[in-house]
Amino acid sequence: MNAFEFRSRIGATANYALSLCALAILPTSAALAENQVAPLNYFLHSYGPASTPTMFLGWVFASLLVAIFVIIALLLLMAIFRKRPAVAPGLLGREDEGMRWVYIGTGLSACILFALAIYTLITLNAIAKPTRAPALTLTVTGYDWWWKVEYEDDDPTRSFVTANEIHIPVGQPVLVKLKSADVIHAFWVPMLAGKTQMIPGLTNQQWLQADVEGVYSGQCTQYCGVQHAHMGLEVVAQSEDEFRTWQDAQRRAADMTAGVDAGKALFMDRCAGCHAIRGTEAVGAHAPDLTHLNSRRLIAAGLLTKSPDHLVQWITHAQDLKPGARMPNMVLSAAEVDALSAFLSTLN
Amino acid sequence: MTNVDQSMLDLNFCRVPEMGSAPVGSAAETRLARLWESAPGWRGWLSTVDHKTIGLRYLVTAFIFLLMGGVEALIMRLQLARPDQTLLTPEQYSQLFTMHGVTMIFLYSLPILSGFSNYLWPLMLGSRDMAFPRLNALSYWIFLFSGIFLYASFPLGEAPNAGWFNYVPFAGLEYNTGPNIDVYALGMVLLGISTTVGAVNFIVTLFRMRAPGMSIDRVPILVWGTLTASVANIFAVPSVSLAFFMLWLDRQAGTHFFDVLNGGKPLLWQHLFWMFGHPWVYAVVLPAMGIVSDALPTFCRRPLVGYSAVALSTMATMLLGFGVWIHHMFATGLPTLALSFFGAASMVISIPSAVAVFAWIATIWLGRPVFTTPFLFFAGFVILFVIGGLSGVMTAAVPLDFQLNETYFIVAHLHYVLIGINVFPVVGGIYYWFPKFFGRMMNETLGKWSFWVMFIGFNLGFFPMHLAGLLGMPRRIYTYAPHMGWTAVNMVTSVGSFVFAAGILIFLVNILVSLKRGVPATSNPWDAPTLEWAMPSPPPVYNFAVIPFVASRHPLWEDRLDEGVGRSSLEQGYLLMEGRETIGTTPLDAKPDIILKMPDDSYTPFFLGLFSALVFVGLLLHWRDFTVLMVLACSLSLTVWMWPRQALVQRVQDIEHDKEAAHG
Amino acid sequence: MAEAMQTAQALPVGSEGKRSGGWWGVLALIVTEGSLFGYLLFTYFYLASQSEQHWPPDGLPELLIPGVNTVILLASSVFVWVSERCIQRSMLLCSLVSMALAHILGVCFVAIQFNEWSKTTYDMTSNLYGSLYFTITGFHMLHVIVGLVILMALLLWIALGYFDHRRYAAVTIGGLYWHFVDVVWLFVFTTLYLTPYLY
Ligand code: HEA
Ligand code: HEA
Ligand code: CUA
Ligand SMILES: [Cu+2]
User: Fold this and answer.
1) Is the CB of B592 less than 8 angstroms away from the CB of C7?
2) pLDDT tens digits for B386-432?
3) B649–C46: do the CB atoms touch at under 8 Å?
4) What is the pLDDT of residue B566?
5) A215 located within any domain
């Protein structure tokens, strides 16, 4: 069991605990026996310094506020049900009594709030900037409904573009510049950092860092149109070596194996208007770069795993799988599908 | 008046108001009834300016919108009950959640409170009507028409679809080409007119229309709540109207306010929207909190603890409410320093809320609660308010909000506050004032059932949303995958929503049953302290046969409070019946200041409302000539409306003739 | 009886000057309209401060004619005030004449402003500055036109002999609105014409 699996095992248990918590509160039980890892559960899981202080803050707030709630609820119940001394009927109370409640209650609340505010500001300060200079800077641009990821380099020939899957070296702060190509999106990889909007005409930035190797899910969280629900991404945190290897592989243009000319021609004809494959004449800029398509785990912004079947389904039925997506259903004969698949399978 | 000019001592311009009493059936009372009655049939229906009729219309219309928004929500809950459902297309889902939000926020939550205030203010303040009865009618008609306007494109499948806060550039022409957003933009500008006009009316009413002796520290808290909300509205509404108008210009006239390519800024929209939006969320709860502050004491058999503190906290909340809008924009990449400031301010805003919460609890503690249905709703409200408020404190913590923002945690927060602080007091308030409205009591058994079903259903449905949010579920997604871990919470939420809806259904049944078969109500069935209970149920058209003199906060409890308060005079007072008249008093101490002439029923509000709605229809459909024509029609209606009238002593001619009319 | 409340005094009846409902209503209306202009100017400053273009794009605005126009508008306000004072003193003719003068000056303002508009090389759609300039001045122009309609009505009503020293609330109220329109212009003028000189 590697570290990540171990962590997710803990995560599963903790999730179970959260569900149990729900169970205790709710008088239903049937559906709650679920112990899957929720991949976006930031409340119990955090794997880096950009989010861990926030997770603790969340725990402190949640428990304190639950305690306050319980106290107030108890006060209210006692107020309602307490035994009252008999008094002359017909007489109503005095207007000016009871102010002590207001003074004490408000005074205590103000003190608690003051403490909470200080703790919040300290946390905010802690996560605002990385303690070291970022090891890596990359730019993520939101598109309807996928993410373009650019790894820049001082040497332009070493920069490269990919989509929907971000690789980072483990244990290193990474600076992410955030842009949008169309409407407002928001970049959110909850187990690593909070979210930041991607606003057209503006370059925002945030940083994140993963201290444990593994795959972290992310999701667009600003309503951006019909397929806002299916605008996911993944961050893969790897050891320095693995990361370098990946980077070098991504920098290379696609190597064109022989024998797939039919598929290639088809691609150039039908797909290259939107998609780019570096090293070929396909330079479309409206859609994910497919140069190293096969290096990715998921396609269509997290919607499907990248199996050959899924690829074909996606290409021919994108509009059924992701209605409204900016990629049309491609009408292809069986032969064309085969040829195209063969070609795509070479994009390693 | 000492400084009255001698030459003004002409009865038409200046007179000593007659004192007296007018018991039911007396000649004076009959005369009053005749003066204030509306014409029978559709004429009266279209032309009435009676605040009670208008108030009820507001209540009924807004409640229908609640049901419509509720049905939209239930459909969404069906779609979300299980993963990967395909009941709705993504586009349908977008329109549903947008219309749900728009309906609930704009067409339900404020109008329903305006309904209460419209009906109750003059009764609570001891007046015969609002300051501007015709404006009141106008604000209702425009509200109704703008509601219809906003819904007009729904059946065509072209309803607003960018969420209730409608962020640009998604709401811009480039990404949203249909009429959807134009409908929203124009509808909001139209509705803004209604809100503004209504708010102006409340403000002037408060400052001018109180019974003599009802100094500013004696008005019920509901009045404070509505006043504060109205003042906030006249400052805040222009912001959103302007934003929507500029958006419409961008879309239809080619301007560049939000156009990124030409230097426009999407963030400008967010600022303008939330500078309005945050004050607005308090505007839709402060009057509801006022309902509780006024009605809860009745059932605790004692006055509210800390009247002045609660009144001050109402205003403090609103004041602070203008300084926290950035907390909806924590994730937009603003500088950390700004975020710290607005985060801290958002926490400070909890302090006035704490004042109110502890005042309510103390009132219950020191009182002797009577467990009727309204009491249950008000006590339940306190619990829900605390939950909703505390989740608000969590989102006010900036780093935490970086996570919580745009997740279901926010959806949970907003429903706890909106349903907890708005819907529960509203339903409780209807139980409370129903006898006054219709002269019949509501059924207690059904009432208790409706409370418990609503309360349990609500918590069952909306508490799990917090968990969904903590599990990372984003808002505004039309479906989700099974492996996300959100399946259970969503199922529970959907079940809870339907239980809650069943509670509302029981409440509706109760209304229908009680309207027909409820026990007839006496004038003060709950033994409540405020003025509206001093008159028969339902109240006569003229409200008060004589304008009362008020000497304390609890005119109907004066004998039983062991404090040396004065004695109000309710049977003896100003008669004022040379036409529709009431007394105007000074803003703070409520000393008699002027005899106000109230206008008669009139069709102009209806027509002005109709024509202004048609102006917007013309703008929407690009019918140039039609629009111009309707603008002219509006101006004409306004001219007729504003023409100085002798009956209201707005001008000086034909005095003799006028006198005769008044006595004839 | 409520604390020594004097009940036997004579009270004015109906729309009496600043005691009338209308006066209070217009005050509230002015507050909300004032905030509308506040938000408009906020929009201007927000966008201007973030603009990367040269601001204003066509160079600094010319001051002479708008300055004169400002004086014209203020003068018109003065005449409205005079007109009201005249009614108070039962000088109906004087009142009528001042109101007419006020109206004429208002019309002059509109004419000059239209001329200013026609001289610009840009319009609402050419650039961001154009959008702002025309929306802000357009909003103000709309208010001036409404104000002129009101002044026209007042003129007519004075001429019809509706008002004397006892009842003239409409003049007070309409006049208040007109003063508001004029004061707002000072803010608009400062924002659009003067502040560009500051940076
Ligand atoms: C209806 C009214 C209403 C009310 C009253 C509130 C009340 C509060 N709200 Fe809420 N809010 C909304 C309606 C409301 N809100 C809506 C509709 C949205 C979402 C909009 C959208 O995105 O669609 C929203 C969103 C929202 C956000 C943005 C979240 C996001 O989008 O990321 C924030 C952030 O700070 C926030 C904070 C608060 C706070 C601090 C309060 C405070 O006023 C709460 C104060 C009350 C209490 C705290 C409880 C009583 C006090 C005590 C019992 C004392 C003891 C307490 C302590 C010691 C802590 N709200
Ligand atoms: C006052 C405000 C209010 C109220 C009362 C409600 C009530 C409800 N809301 Fe709403 N909600 C909002 C304000 C409100 N909401 C806002 C502002 C948003 C944000 C919108 C946005 O993102 O833009 C939102 C968003 C929102 C979402 C999130 C959508 C998303 O982000 O994808 C959901 C999801 O579950 C939801 C559910 C519900 C449910 C189940 C109810 C239930 O309480 C409804 C209960 C049902 C009824 C009240 C109707 C009862 C009907 C009957 C009994 C049938 C009888 C019928 C006839 C007689 C015809 N709401
Ligand atoms: Cu992109 Cu939501
Ligand atoms: Cu807010």
Assistant:
1) yes
2) 999 999 999 999 999 999 999 999 999 999 999 999 999 999 999 99
3) no
4) 77
5) yes
Within 8 A of A50 by CB-CB distance, chain B residues are none
Instruction: Read off the tokens for B97.
Output: 């959640």
Question: Are B560 and A186 a contacting pair at CB < 8 A?
Answer: no
Using CA atoms, how far residue B361 sits from A45, A68, A79, B304, B384, in Å, is 38, 14, 7, 10, 13
Task: Name residues 46-65 of chain A within 8 A of B (Cβ).
Answer: 51, 53-54, 57-58, 61-62, 65
Of B350, B381, B407, B408, the residue with max ligand 1 atoms within 8 A of its CB, to mutate for a pocket test, comes to B350
Give the residues of chain B that fall short of pLDDT 50.
1-8, 655-664
CB A235 within 8 A of CB A218: yes
| Residue B161: how many other CB atoms lie within 10 Å | 27
Q: What is the B328 CA–ligand 4 centroid distance (Å)?
A: 6
Q: Is residue A252 part of a domain?
A: no
- The minimum-distance atom of ligand 1 relative to the CA of B422 is 1
Boundaries of every domain in chain C: 61-199
Statement to judge: residues A152 and A289 lie in one domain: no
Q: Are residues A30 and A151 in the same domain?
A: yes
First-last CA distance in chain A: 28
What CATH code is carried by the domain that includes residue A236?
2.60.40.420
Selection from B387, B410, B382, B509 nearest residue B459 by Cα: B387
pLDDT score recorded for residue A87: 74
Option in C7, C28, C47 nearest B204 (CB): C28
Domain residue limits at A290: 261-344
Q: How far is A249 from chain B (nearest CA, A)?
A: 31
3-state secondary structure chain C: CHHHCCCCCCEEECCCHHHCHHHHHHHHHHHHHHHHHHHHHHHHHHHHHHCCCCCCCCCCCCCHHHHHHHHHHHHHHHHHHHHHHHHHCCCHHHHHHHHHHHHHHHHHHHHHHHHHHHHCCCCCCCCHHHHHHHHHHHHHHHHHHHHHHHHHHHHHHHHCCCCCCCCCHHHHHHHHHHHHHHHHHHHHHHHHHHHHHHC
CATH fit for domain C61-199, picks 1.20.58.220, 1.10.287.110, 3.40.50.150, 1.20.120.80: 1.20.120.80
Q: Are A273 and A230 members of one domain?
A: no
pLDDT in tens, A12-46: 444 554 554 544 444 333 333 333 468 999 999 99
Nearest to B242 among C10, C39, C53 (CB): C39
Cα A95 to Cα A243: distance, rounded to the nearest angstrom:
72
| Largest interatomic CA distance in chain C | 72
Q: Are residues A195 and A155 part of one domain?
A: yes
* A146 and A3 fall within a common domain: yes
Instruction: Say if residue A21 is in the same domain as residue A146.
Output: yes
Q: What's the domain count of chain A?
A: 2
Min Cα separation A315/chain B (Å): 20
Mutate to test the interface with A, among B383, B406, B558, B561 (most CBs of A within 10 A): B406
Q: Which ligand is nearest to the CA of B175?
A: 3
Is A41 a member of any domain? yes
Contact between chains at B301 and A68 (C-beta distance less than 8 A)? no
> Of A183, A214, A244, which closes a domain?
A244
Closest residue, chain B, to C152 (C-alpha): B639
